Amino acid sequence: MEREFGDRKIQLVLGDITEERSDAIVNAANSSLLGGGGVDGAIHRAGGPAILEECKAIRQRCGECPPGMAVITTGGRLAARYVIHTVGPVWRGGRAGEESLLSSCYRNSLRLAAEKGLSSVAFPSISTGIYGFPAAKAAPVALGAVARFLSEEERSPSIVRFVLFDEGTFHTYSEALADL
Ligand code: ADP
């Protein structure tokens, strides 16, 4: 499933983001930047130790990464050249600024990709696993933030692909993309 925004597009696929061949993949990291479960663990396992080394160096330089922010490292052994690590908000019921923080994750990740001149970026569904953000609420926020960036920023990547890990999430994002 895909939708065009001028000469850019958003694509949705069902799959494993560690196998993505986009210029960068985005990691749903935690504030420590030192790895975790879910997609974070899978990316570090597949990409090897070079990614964690760079994360540790960033942490020493800048401290913890707060929710909504993003940093970029090598892709190590992954097919993707870079990993962009962004920290999603933990779902606390919806009144703690979760939607705006989630939107910042996508915008700040795309800003890093644009600064590097990348033409393709792949995202997982940030915050909808361990962090508990309901997928039906996350999907329009995620897709809306990306669509806005693609429409408004001149140097944005030309393809943004959401690589969704299960049928339910894929279906939810498909409906939200159609409604956008
Ligand atoms: P968070 O802590 O931000 O909620 P999780 O990693 O727990 O992050 O989950 C985010 C989403 O990533 C969930 O939908 C989960 O099913 C999905 N996911 C887990 N592993 C992968 C993978 N290898 N590729 C793509 N998505 C994945």
Give the rounded overall mean pLDDT. Answer: 97
Strand order of the largest sheet: 1-2-7-6-3-5-4
CATH architecture: 3-Layer(aba) Sandwich
- The overall number of domains is 1
Oligomer: single chain
Instruction: Give the beta-strand count.
Output: 7
CA-CA gap between termini: 13 Å
By secondary-structure content and strand pairing, the structural class works out as alpha/beta
Task: List low-confidence stretches.
Answer: none
Number of helices: 5
CATH superfamily: Leucine Aminopeptidase, subunit E, domain 1
Order of helices and strands: EEEHHEEHEHEH
Output the CATH topology. Leucine Aminopeptidase, subunit E, domain 1
Q: Tell me, what's the shape?
A: globular
Largest sheet: 7 strands, mixed
Describe this structure as you would to a colleague.
With 180 residues, the protein is α/β, with parallel strands linked by helices. The chain has a single domain, classed as Leucine Aminopeptidase, subunit E, domain 1. The protein has 5 helices and 7 strands, in the order E-E-E-H-H-E-E-H-E-H-E-H. The protein has helices at 38-47, 49-62, 98-115, 135-152, 167-179, and strands at 2-5, 8-14, 24-29, 70-74, 82-87, 120-123, 159-164. The protein has a 7-stranded mixed beta sheet, sandwiched between helices. Helix 3 runs parallel beside helix 4 (135-152) and helix 4 packs across helix 5 (167-179). The longest helix has 18 residues, at 98-115. It is globular, with a radius of gyration of 15 Å. The two termini are 13 Å apart. The model has no long low-confidence stretch (mean pLDDT 97). The chain binds adenosine-5'-diphosphate. The site of adenosine-5'-diphosphate (ADP) has 21 residues, from helix 1.
